[in-house]
From TrEMBL:
Coiled coil: none
Protein name: isochorismate synthase
Record EC number: 5.4.4.2
Species of the source: Gordonia insulae
UniProt cross-references to NCBIfam families, sorted A to Z: isochor_syn
Length: 371
């Protein structure tokens, strides 16, 4: 993985603009979140790294690693040479079916008797690479294409036989929660529009997003949910009233930086991730109603729209929302990737399809898939 000092097999990477964490070797593995939280509190000195699924009732993929390295600066993995030559083998559902699902969700959301304000619907693509791809090479490709250097890779094997040898790899722009001492920060994103190659059109897209009442409402549900989840845990909480624009190479997003001071010094970054996940950015409002709708329409999402991150032995850590990612199978050739978007009562189904297509570009361009 371009990190020659590791003495064990890498199990985890999180690259961020200003630092990166790499972990290797498995001292213990956890498929149950509660056991990993207990392990952190036991004070044996090891960190926890890995992935939480979308549905926390399903197995987690958490590891207490043998080696845990937290280093300044984004990760610069060994840059792969040559193209990957992956191709899409299946779409679940087909684009036209996704449009129908969104239209059905819009009708459900428009009827107040259904008691649901927002739901995030996703579609997924299966891909096959002609040559085996290593998780770390894939992560290096993603990080090289992201101006902020965001990338992650997590071994999913702790989640059980269905995930043996699988890795979740992606480049997420969204911080679910971060803890530095008693400071907790979140940077929820919701309300999106695709970037455009023409700078004038691109800027206009951003301005339109900032003014869009529909997108601000979509965003507001996420900010409100995070503020309600964090308020009981914080002695101070700063929640800006207005979202700001954030970009990735493929998307514009509305984002709100939230900052608080934690009251209980023993609460860990993993506890905080469990307290705020799943946010309405990837699930909906109210949460149980939206989650049931998603599970009924899409089935199990696995580790997409979960969280990937780390928590050190002091309780500090960072968890990203696991979006713009793919599950890479044990043979290094089979991949599944997902893209979703928040739906509210005035969403336009064709626009939602376009939004998911643009979100797919993060993973597809790293795999040299044209489109
Ligand atoms: C669900 C995804 O993205 C989430 C949904 C967004 C939206 O609906 O505007 C924006 C950012 C993410 O919170 C995804 O990328 O798959």
């Amino acid at each position: 993985m371009g990190d020659d000092e590791l003495r064990h097999d890498p199990v985890f990477l999180l690259s961020r603009p200003d630092e990166h964490v790499i972990a290797a070797g498995a001292h213990r593995r956890f498929d149950h979140l509660g056991d990993a939280r207990t392990h952190l509190r036991s004070g044996d000195g090891s960190a926890i790294v890995g992935a939480l699924p979308f549905d926390l009732r399903r197995p987690c993929a958490l590891t207490a690693p043998v080696e845990f390295h937290r280093r300044t600066g984004r990760w610069r993995g060994r840059q792969p040479t040559g193209a990957v030559a992956a191709r899409v083998t299946e779409a679940h559902p087909e684009p036209a079916q996704h449009v129908r699902r969104v239209a059905h969700a819009v009708a459900t959301l428009a009827d107040p008797s259904n008691g649901m304000d927002k739901v995030v619907l996703a579609r997924r693509l299966s891909l096959e690479s002609s040559d085996p791809l290593s998780p770390w090479e894939f992560a290096a490709r993603l990080s090289a294409r992201d101006h902020a250097g965001n990338a992650f890779a997590a071994d999913l094997s702790p989640a059980g036989p269905d995930f043996d040898g699988h890795h979740l790899i992606g480049s997420s722009p969204e911080v679910l929660v971060r803890k530095d001492g008693d400071v907790v920060t979140c940077h929820p994103l919701a309300g999106s529009t695709p970037r455009n190659a023409d700078p004038a059109v691109d800027t206009a897209n951003g301005h339109r997003l900032r003014r869009s009442a529909k997108d601000r409402r979509e965003h507001g549900y996420v900010v409100d949910a995070l503020a309600s989840a964090l308020a009981p845990l914080c002695r101070e909480l700063d929640v800006p009233a207005e979202p700001t624009l954030t970009t990735t190479p493929t998307m514009w997003h509305l984002g709100t930086p939230i900052r608080g001071l934690i009251t209980d010094p023993d609460i860990t970054a993993l506890d905080l991730a469990a307290a705020v996940h799943p946010t309405p950015a990837i699930c909906g409002t109210p949460t149980p109603r939206a989650r049931d709708h998603i599970l009924a329409v899409e089935g199990d999402r696995g580790f997409y729209a979960g969280a990937v991150g780390w928590c050190d032995s002091t309780g500090d850590g960072e968890w990203m929302v696991s979006i713009r990612c793919a599950d890479l199978g044990p043979d290094g050739r089979q991949l599944v990737t997902w893209a979703g978007g928040g739906i509210v009562a005035d969403s336009v189904p064709a626009d939602e399809l376009a939004e998911t297509s643009a979100k797919f570009r993060t993973v597809l361009s790293a795999l040299d898939v044209a489109g």
